[in-house]
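Lab channel / #folding
Pinned by the channel admin:
"Please post every new chain as: sequence first, then the structure tokens as a reply. Keep commentary short and put observations after the output so the thread stays searchable."

First post following the new format, from NK:
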Amino acid sequence: MMTGLSQGEFNIDRMCWLAGVSRASYYRHWLDSAPRRAETGLRDLIQKMALGNAHYGYRRIAALLRREGWQVNHKCILRIMREDNLLCLRARPFVPVTTNSRHGWHVVPNLAKGMLLNGLDQLWVADITFLHLAEEFAFLAVVLDAFSRKVVGWALDTHLRASLAIEALEMAIANRQPEPGSLVHHSDRPIHLRSLLRTSAASRYPGEHEPCREL
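Reply from TO:
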């Protein structure tokens, strides 16, 4: 029993003996996990820089990191930003024109704006957030019912691919089983949710999907 012991009462040898592991195994685990902990800290900083500077590519992010004292090369930054789906945040420089017709996305109205809700399963709101764990990141996709403000679907994984949002939406549909054409699926995170509309699975979902307007 190790309850009631003050911090620092045992040295490493004593702790290893109590845990039933060798000293070599302890150090091997520590050395193996150290790179993961370091990369988790790096990913955290890259996430903040990329989301705060959406027009920055991986080379400019790498330059910012080097100014912060990180010894990293641009290939490492490219790999991390690609894995975390941050490269798509980069946008064209702003051009003051009234319209921009040079995009491949179908323009949809803001179906959620002005909706008067009087019951469940009329408007679902989707969002994605990232969780900073000890040695890695996890990404949480949720679908909320706007009327009850309760979670109706969610998905958790270590990637930020479109399948994460799809899994959360599929859970919501399985849980609530809404009538076809009876609800609006809304998100104000177009970067992460646009891919949903490009999948053939989206055509099977009931209701309307409009991922690029704010409530």
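NK: The longest strand covers residues 123-132.
TO: also worth noting, Residues 1-7, 93-100, 197-203, 210-215 have pLDDT under 50 and may be disordered.
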